[in-house]
Amino acid sequence: MAQSTDHVVDQVAQLNAARSLVLGDAALYPQIVNGILPIVGANARLELRRWGADFLAETFASPMLATVQKQELAPTVLQSIQETLALPETDTAVLSSLVQTSASLYPLIFRHIVNHPEDSKTWETMNAVKQEILRKMDSFPCPAKICSVKFLQRVVQVQTPGLIADPRRPDQNETSLAVVPRNHALLAIPLLEAEASGLLDRLLGVFQEETSDPLVVNATLNCLAPLIRTRQSIANKIIQTILDFFPAKHVRPPFTPTVRVGVKSMERTARALLFNVMKKNPSNPLMGKMQAYIERLMQSRLEVTEDASRKRGLPVEPTDGLDNAKRARLDAMTPPLLKIPPLPPGPTSYDQLFTLTQDIGLSSFDVKQLPPDLVVKIAVPLLAQVNPSMLTQAVDAIRNRYETITKEQNLKRQQLYQAATAAAADEDDDYEPDYEPLDVGADASEEAIALAAEDAELEPDLVSLGPFVLPQPPPLTEEEAGDVGRSAVSRVFGMIDAVETTPSPAQSKTQQQLSFARLAGSTFDRDAWVILLTRLATRAPAGLEGGDKSKGELATGKRQPTISDSIRETLYRYILEDFRARLKIGITWLNEEWYNDRVRMKAANSDRGDEDEEPTVALFYDTWVLRLLDGFLPYLDSRDIKVLVRFLSEIPEVTIAITQRVASLAKDPERVNLTVQALMYLIMFRPPAREMCLNTLEDVYQTYEESRPAAGKVLARWRPQALPAPTETAPAAPQAEVQAPPTAST
Hints:
CATH class of the largest domain: Mainly Alpha
Radius of gyration: 45 Å
Helix content: 55-70%
Structural class: mainly alpha
Number of strands: 0
CATH topology of the largest domain: Leucine-rich Repeat Variant
Largest sheet: none
Strand content: under 5%
Oligomer: single chain
């Protein structure tokens, strides 16, 4: 036995040396893991199994080991974990480490099965491990149960659809149902999603138990944070379950200090989780409920547990300082009782309601006969001498009278309504109309009329009023409609300046750029308002300006201004106010204009009968792209090459007129390189516009001598025939004449 113990000690020492070796060089992990699996398997001694389980949990949680290597090692380790879990293992350390290792392995095995659908054995082994943990987790000791909570969280996270960050690189996306092909041989998406929903309910069941273990509750709350952040489909369900959980209600007396600390820790963990959710997602629809939940936790902290430690409360004292028992002992004077007369039958008036005396002389006296100043002189001394007990009894008596009268009136109204409804039903009922005697209906009608006459004195008749209908507003003239439209456009431009100019990183990750298919109201940032304005200017009036009216306007050369023209003019001025910062808005606008022109031309070509006839459609792209160029080209300098190149590269179409505008920059010697570089970019990266750009560059080369060094290099590559022969040299005199004009101009 001593020899066996010494042998185990030597093996543990060798294993510790191997651990130190891989901690120094992570590249040795595969070799060491494959070497220790036979030693620390299910048939090994407890010390070796404990060391092996701890090492495997440390290996697959280590950030030093690459994910690719972990994915390669996962199938080899899985069989050993299944064999150990199948044993009646009772050691807490072994169980905790094995469950923790399974939690790390599940995403790796899932990704491996996605990429290798033919490896059914590995997936069956992983399912066996999962079922073994789910079957035994309720009987696990507390440390292993906490690790099982982490395993459940990993399974739910993997088997729930996640976001695809980059569809072009599936290996970089998070492991979830979103990466599983629909026709996968082993992974059935509906079954996996249903299993994840059931496991989520089991994970959240700890918040619905009568008694809760603070350690398990805190572990569950900490594991729910990644699910809320990465799985929007189940985030609201998780948050709602947490909002229904109050730790103080899930403990039972006696309220020992240990119980109080546990309740306080659960409250603190729940508050920290909700604070983190509100910080990460300020626009969450449950923001108000989360704030109210946090305030309730902070205000009613440990109310249940503190009740047991509070001292006995103060005794309830009588309102007047003496109770009946003390009056007998102290010989105190008992307050007199006020005799309240009953109300007379029939309708009650205000004087009868407030009359509490039975003296006929006092009740029949008219106070209005006295002057007001005399009434004030009499009332003030009397109120100072009134017994408080008598005054309280009088006020309570009047209050009881008023409540009784109100109840009787409500009862009469209800009876009247029921009688009227029954009479109307008897009149409209065609089934056996002669069954009841005639006098019954007459008596009911007479009773209803009498009750109505009696109630008419108490409530005015409002049923006779007809429905109120607002009159139709007068129609707007064209000028008024135009003014209203322009004011609406100005308010929208005010919203563009008011919203945030740069979106947050979270919005930029989740926002999908869908080009022309993008919804204008999908977000509430500046880009959404710009898209809305440009489409109001281009797409909204589509089909409203065609027909004979458009032909007449094109023939006369005049066109009636519309709200679209007002939006275009406002956009034009808005962009030129700061064209460098708002160039993206201009490009978006011009793309919408070009798209609108093509759609309208296509519709016009399909509607007209003669195919040779040119479509009578007013085109806006060519007009506004030239106006925008003419607006900011004079303000460009030699450092604005990025601005000009971006504009020319992102507009949908480059025309001859646009290249001529760019060529006009060469008139300024300081902006010659700007012209040549912009044209060179179009020649290289916009092949449809290459020929017209080469023609423009050749004209610049021949017209402006300052451009020849830079333009000659471009033409030498793309159009060498436009350059003079190398043998031709200009004489000295003409060269001096060519150099003279720049000197004179400068």
